[in-house]
Every structure is written in structure tokens, then in C-alpha cells.
Design goal:
By secondary structure, the protein is an alpha/beta fold. It is 35% helix and 22% strand.
Length: 389
Amino acid sequence: MDEQVRAQVERLHATPLMAVVAVSGGGFQAIAWLLGVAGASRTVIEAIVPYSEGALRDLLGYAPEKHVSPETARHMARSSYERARKHGPPDRPVVGIGCTAAIRTDRERRGDHRCYVAAWSERGSTTYGVTLTKGQRERDAEEDIVSRLVLRALVEADGDEPTMHLSPDISLGETEVIERRHSDPLGQFFLGEIDAVTLGSDGSITAGVDHVGGVLSGSFDPLHEGHEGLARVASGMLDVEVVFELAVANVDKKSLEEQTIRERLAQFAGRNTVIATREPRFDGKAALLPGCTFVIGWDTAARLFVPRYYGNDEGHMLAAISEVRDRGCSFLVAGRVVGGEFRSLDGLEIPAGFSDMLTPIPESVFRQDLSSTELRLASGENRERNMSC
């Protein structure tokens, strides 16, 4: 191990970042470097070498179409990140590293010599790729490049710019370029790589959900005072923080397009924390948000117990609501004006055994008759009036 690499590993061991590192086809020296410097237990949670097809399939949960590809590296990194969250200390930042490579071997390789390395953390994913010129290096020199790229991915995952570069004696050729691509959690969400993303009122963006409290679900087209007033009332009743959940998929409507999602999320900037999910039903939402109380309106509560939203299968409906309960979730229900009449939880027919999951918000505590639909209609009328002037 040269002094440049040793210094880099020592610096990594001095940071709070911990990692699960998975490498296949190359990058093995990086594991040896990390474990070969004192203090490795402060950085390495686990090192995995899924070399065979079966081992890689077990790590990913599926058989990749291409073993050496940026997608496979990213998915290896994601699986590693999930293992890091499971096995790492809860008070330390963690990252998953995935590396897949096709480098010089004892037979003529038909394809390119190349590698892809990915880092996955709550701040997003970064993928690196490089194609090496065939015949220019021995295997150990190509392995050295791949392993140094693994270290670079770890360094950047810690938030630092890379301070270690490839040594001059194994520098990349003129046509060899490391390509770097970063996706923040919102980008990962749009790519379908994660199921949920949280946008804080302070502008932060994190993958997934880390919230136990109240959740006000809706399409927020647009967000208005009624939503925010309901969140304040619910927070007071529950004595917990209430965040918003933008449901980009809905049981009654088509899924929202990316531009629409961005516009809806932008409404919360600097005001409220909002979670975006693709879960149209509350059994799916409960899987992402166990232990939460969902704050909903009367009309949404009425749809909870309609079999057509569960494939016209009443048994499926009851099983789905049971799953919500089993995950420790419940509902806080606000009344709504429907057809000129104020409807409350008292008027709903709730199947036996589920009434204790729904708690009404008294009309005297909260009533908001203006809906998003009415606001959109009013906005459209104003635009038409302005255009006619």
C-alpha cells in the first residue's frame, strides 16, 4: 500500500461515516486497504464479494441483465446501503458502495475492460464509470485503478472533494475518462429507484421516510390554508408533528407527471415538510410510515371501506385495513361539506372491528368549507376575467 492510499484510508477511518462495500469482478484491493489500516472497525460494517451469478442475485434480489453496468453498480450500492442501515449504529451516517468490473483476466475478453462504482446514501447516489484501454496494463494495474475509484466514492460520500488521484505511474490515458453522475433523492424518486422522498421545510432532500407522527395526505392542487389549518389542529390533538404527504398515485386519478410533482412540492418550500410517495392506498402508506396517524377528510375516510378500490374484493379490503392497523397506524378524520351538507365520521358505515382506528375531529375544532377544487375554479374564473379586460 503506497503512502497516498494509506493516508486516504486513515482519513476515512477518522470520519464518522460507516460503509458496507460490495465488489464484484474488481475493487478487491480497496477492501484489503480499508481492513489493512488500524481503525477499520470505525469505517467498515461489512465487506461483500458476490463473485458468482447466484451470489450477486442474492445481494440484489434479482438477476441483472448485465453484470457490469452502471445500473448494476447502483443497485449493489442500494442493497449495501440497506444493509448498512440495518447493521450500522443508528447515530452514524452510512453509505453503501457497489462496484462491478470487467478487467484483464487469463483469457481474451471480447468486450471492453471497464468498471462502474456507485455510492448510495440518504443524500442520493453517485455513479462513476471508466473504460480502460485493452492491453495497456496488467491485471494488477487495472485492479489498482478500480480500487482507487472505490476509495474516491467513499471520500465523496463523506461530503469531501476527492483529494486522492491516480498515481502518475498508472495514470489514465488520454482517451480514458472517469464519468461521474449524481442523482439527488428527488431524482432517484423520479427514476423509480426509491419509494419515497422527504423534502424538509429548510430545503433538505433525503431518501425515504424517517417520521413517526401525523401525516396529512393529499394531492394539494393547490395547497391552501385549509390544509395547513388542519395540520395545526391535528398536531395539537395528537401532540406530535404533522407532515404532509403528496400522493403522486391516486386510486381515482392517473399518476402525476414529473413536472406536476415538482410544482406541487414547490408549494411547501420554506413552509412545511412534505413526503412524496407512489402509494395510492393506505396499506402501502402504512408500510412506509409505520406507527403514524393519517389525517384525512371525510371523503377519503369513506373510500377506505369501498371494495372497488381493492379489486372489488371485500376480503382484500378488510385484509388491507387490518395491515394498516397491524403496522400501528390509525386515522384522524375531519368533516367535509358534501352536497351542501356537513358530513362527519358519525355518518360512515365502518365494518365491525375497525371503528377504533378512526377518531373524529369535532366540527367545533375544525371546519373548512373551501376545497382545492373550488380554489382552482375560482382561479380559472379570475384568469378568464383578466383576459377579457
